[in-house]
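Quick start: what a row looks like.
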Amino acid sequence: MPEQTYSDPTFSQRLLSWYDLHGRHNLPWQQDKTPYRVWVSEIMLQQTQVTTVIPYYQRFMARFPQVSDLATANEDDVLHHWSGLGYYSRARNLHKAAKLVVNEHAGTFPRSVAGLMELPGIGRSTAGAIAAISMGIRAPIMDGNVKRILTRYFAIHGWPGLTAVTNELWAIAEVLTPRERVGDYTQVMMDLGATLCKHSKPACHLCPLNNRCVAHQTGQQQRFPESRPKQAKPERSTVMLMVVNQFGEILLEKRPPTGIWGGLWSFPELSDPDQISAEALARTGLTIDDCELWQPFRHTFSHYHLDITPALTFIDSQQQALPIRERDDYCWFPLNQSHQLGLAAPVKKLLEKIALVL
């Protein structure tokens, strides 16, 4: 569509006036807006609510106050400070990107959207937010809040995940992004979507855009943005083998660097609750005589359900523990100590439960 279809010279003015009076100005990442601090916040805020992110962000920045601190940290430490936030590839990419910034850019972030997008884990929208908020560079963004505002304001049909719809929304965002106060404009687009233009029960009567918003004017707020065609999530199952030795240590396995829970410490996983002894011997070299199956529970990822059956067992022979100590991907960790490790959320909960029953 031609750009004039989207032209609205008062759009940014109305938003910025609202932001000055009602926007959020005291979030932790809004203080000392360096590219590093903004970058970390933007990565954490992907798929995660602001209220959830704040304590994680504060702990993360206290531990890694500068990009150089993050670059020189070990992966376990980084993942430990990310544990519970989910989508762990974000943390691994954050760590990789920090190393690149330090080693290839002398500790300074690239000052362009294209340059920022060359770093691992930074897409066009995240690069735009970093550039606009911390560098004052005019660049549009396209997170879930922006998609919701624009699809409602212009009544854009189609699921925003479709390429044609995505391209149309980027074209709109490019036209509407002002040349002045781009950092505040970027923030207000996120604020408005998070506080007023919510997915359900939007507060249209308080919105500075309501007099020209097509969805509001036609009473179709709930229609936009249009939903992704529903598909049933597949179901998978696993047995988490929880082995405790005679020293009160629990066996943990470091997962591969990619995939679900990549790089985190977890329990060895088996496929068949009726074949635990045979699978455990093949996977770990341990002879398991008996184990206690706990109540299965479900952990849901974005794209599938995982049904977990915990299996608790004890070994008493010191000889059994020795082969494990010779492997890099398995380790015995004391249950009575705080684990400064990257742990998947279900694993962390199970460790707490094991400590209570022993």
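That is the whole record. The longest helix spans residues 89-104. The domain at 3-223 is CATH 1.10.340.30 (Endonuclease III; domain 1).
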